[in-house]
User: Fold these one by one.
Assistant:
Number 1:
Amino acid sequence: QVQLVESGGGLVQAGGSLRLSCTASGIINRYNDMGWYRQAPGKQRELVATISTGGSTNVADSVQDRFTISRDNTNDTVYLQMNSLKPEDTAVYYCNVRRSSYPHYDYWGQGTQVTVSS
C-alpha cells in the first residue's frame, strides 16, 4: 500500500520561509516524478513544482525565484524549500508522485496547510 506522508506546513509571516517534506512508501517502481501542488480557497489546484528521478525540474513562474524543489531518491522523499513567502502563497499544499509510463500510477498526499500572514 502506497503512503505519502507530508510535513512542514504552518503559519509564517510574509517574507519568511518554510520547508515541506513528503516521504513515499510502498512504491514498487521508483522512476517517477515527485512534486507539489497547491489549492487556495475557491481556486483550482495548481502546479507548484515537480522533479524527476534524474533531477529535472518544472517550477511554476509564480514561485520560480523563491521556491526550490529537491528530492532524495534513496529515501523517496521530496522537499520544497519556500523562501520570501507571500500571503498569496497561502494554500493547502499536496504532495504528488506519478509515473506516466507503464506501470502507471498517480498518488496524492493528504495535504498540509501553509498560511502566510501579512
Note: The two ends are 40 Å apart (CA to CA).
Number 2:
Amino acid sequence: QVQLVESGGGLVQSGGSLRLSCAASGFTFSNWAMSWVRQAPGKELEWVSDINSGGASTNYADSVKGRFTISRDNAKSTLYLQMNSLKPEDTAVYYCAPGDYTTYERYHEVWGQGTLVTVSS
C-alpha cells in the first residue's frame, strides 16, 4: 500500500533552516508530480510547493518563494523541502502529497502523519 513518511521537522529560531524529507513507497514515485502541503494550528491546509515527476519543473506559493526549495531523488523515492529564512508564520505540520497544486487534494487518504515545524520568534 502507499506509504508517505515525512521527517526532518523540529524547533528552530526565526531565520533558521530545516530540511524536510518524505520517503515514499507502494507506488511508482518517479511517475508522479509531488507536493508539499502544510497546516498551521487552527488554519486550513495550504499548498506550499510542487515538483514534476522528473524534477525539472517546480512551483511555489508566494508565501515561501525565494526561501524554500523543493527537490526529489527518484532513485531513492524521496521528496525534499529545504526551508531557509524561516519565519514564525511557517509554523505548521508539513505533509507530502502525490499530485501537483491542482490535484494534491484528491489523494488525501494516503497522506502520512506529517512532520511538525515550529519556528520561534
Note: The CA atoms of residues 85 and 93 lie 17 Å apart.
Number 3:
Amino acid sequence: QVQLVESGGGLVQAGASLRLSCAATGSTFSRYTLAWFRQAPAKEREFVARILGDGITRYYADSVKGRFTISRDNARSTVNLQMNSLKPEDTAVYYCAARLLGTVNYQDWGQGTQVTVSS
C-alpha cells in the first residue's frame, strides 16, 4: 500500500502549462504502476495517463496525447504530469493513483488537486 499526495494544481488561462506532482510513501514505489485520472463536474472520472514501474512505458488518453507528459522518479517516489497547451475542457480534479504490479485495479488514490483552465 502507498499513500499519495498531489500538488501543483491551480487556475491558468488556455494555452498555459501546469505541472502536477504526486509524492508517494509506504511501499516499494517501483513495484507500482502510477496513473493520473481526472474528474470534471457532473462527469465520470476518466483516465489521463499511466506509467509503468520501468519509467519508460507510458500510455495516454487520446484527449491529452501530445500535450501531457507523465514521468516518474523512483528514487524520490514521485510521479509528475506535465500539462502543456491547456484547454478549458482540461478543467477537472486530477487524481494520482497506484496499482501494484500484476493487479488490475488501482488500490491507492490521492485526495486530488484542482486544475481550472479559463478561456
Note: The mean pLDDT is 96.
